[in-house]
Amino acid sequence: MAASKSKNPQVLFVTPEIYPLIKTGGLADISGSLPATLRELGTEIRVLVPGYPKVLAGAKNKRLRHVFHGLPEAAEVRLLSASLPGSGVPLLIIECPTLYQRDGSPYQDHSGADWPDNDRRFSLLSRVAAILGSDASPLAFHPDIVHCNDWQSGLVPALLHFAPGKKAATVMTIHNLAFQGIFPPKSFNQVGLPPESFSIEGVEYYGNFSFLKAGLYYADHITTVSPTYAREIQQEPLGFGMQGLLAKRHASLTGVVNGIDMDDWNPAADPRLAKPYDAGHMAGKAANKRALQEKMGLAIDPDIPLLGMISRITHQKGGDLLLEIAPQLLQEPVQIVLLGTGDATLENGFRQLADTHPGSVGAMIGFDEGLSHLIEAGADMFLMPSRFEPCGLNQMYSQRYGTPPIVHATGGLADTVEDGVSGFVFDQETTTEFHRCIQRALAAYRDKKTWRQILRNGMKRDFSWTKSAEEYMALYETILNK
Length: 482
Ligand code: ADP
Fold this sequence. Notes:
By secondary structure, this protein is α/β, with parallel strands linked by helices. It folds into 2 domains: about 10-260 and about 465-480, Rossmann fold (3-Layer(aba) Sandwich), CATH 3.40.50.2000; about 285-460, Glycogen Phosphorylase B (Rossmann fold, 3-Layer(aba) Sandwich), CATH 3.40.50.2000. It has 18 helices and 18 strands. The protein has a 9-stranded mixed sheet with strand order 3-4-5-2-1-6-7-11-12, sandwiched between helices. Strand 1, helix 1 (about 25-40) and strand 2 form a beta-alpha-beta unit. The longest helix has 16 residues, at about 430-445. The radius of gyration is 23 Å and the shape is globular. Adenosine-5'-diphosphate binds near residues 25, 340, 368, 372 and 391.
């Protein structure tokens, strides 16, 4: 392992997305805030990201550091140093126009189809990370730990395992085990790992090549984003085929719950709100409710309970459950606001629901960071009926914004919401239980004193990154001392 000059380990954090440059989901938020907190606590850290157009356009202080020639993925690859707007966290950006310079999301084109060369695109991310974590690095920065996130960086532990010489230790963090980066065997041939690694004791997954399995198999340590999810993924059904491997590696598997960016998500100073507020001055929340009702074409009514939901609209997030109970739910005075994109059938379901309930249901199909903040502030309750949720962020944003979340007891939702204290929790993933839980929340809402207490309990909770970042630092130490 590389020798560290400073007391704390030096860390290379590898991620396919990072807020505020490029975001499709929670991993971007985490990549934008965990490294910043680790740095504040004294860790010397660099974040490695692909040079998508938005990353190149938004990163500050870009400087060319190195040109790689003849990597298996591309003839010429440039490595830039830069800094993240806002926190100033040092970035390393992989500039490779043939692989990253395209419109669309990091993973898919505009039609929602995966980029056909995702194997090559993220093999390059992993390759550069592995070079930087090894003796062959062209930089003066020599990480002790390469911290990988999700399948897109899953090849790093495998590449480093087979690399000669001194090398960094690896941590593989699972943000969502449902995404595994599975490719046909011919992708394996292009990566240059030894043929014997294409086996059940290695990167092979039911005849295919899995980037995530490569990470889970070869990493020195595995983490995931909540203790409950760490337990759930060691069994069916949430192990998604990896439960055997994860159960075998349980001694090297830790759940560390995510924090949130308490500055970006602060109702007292959020520029995206109609009016700021805090637990002592809740009038601003009513102004945001009104602004949200106006924006979404809902009837203006300060008293009617307004239920919000923001998510990728997929089976995982349980939007179908809301669609199923909505007609019944809407027989009572409630309003529903949804913001999301995803599954076309479910998207249409929400459009139709809004069309058939004008003034009571608003559906915005799309990705809108500003509106997501207004929903957190303007809604009275927040819905997260996820079938599984490794950690989840919105339930924490909701508590901070005085918008009690209604959540299924799974993964990080179970770990961060206390039933009847700062939110509402249901155990079984059924429409009946979900509906019953909403009814409980509506009953509490009608009792002003109880409701105020629930809001206050949530708003005063500390979801900052400090505690989690300290856990990661302790973990890095333990790994390096092994
Ligand atoms: P996941 O990463 O599984 O999508 P998380 O709850 O961990 O779920 O994080 C989702 C993040 O993405 C949150 O910050 C959420 O507010 C945001 N988000 C999801 N969908 C949208 C959308 N359509 N518009 C704006 N923000 C969204």
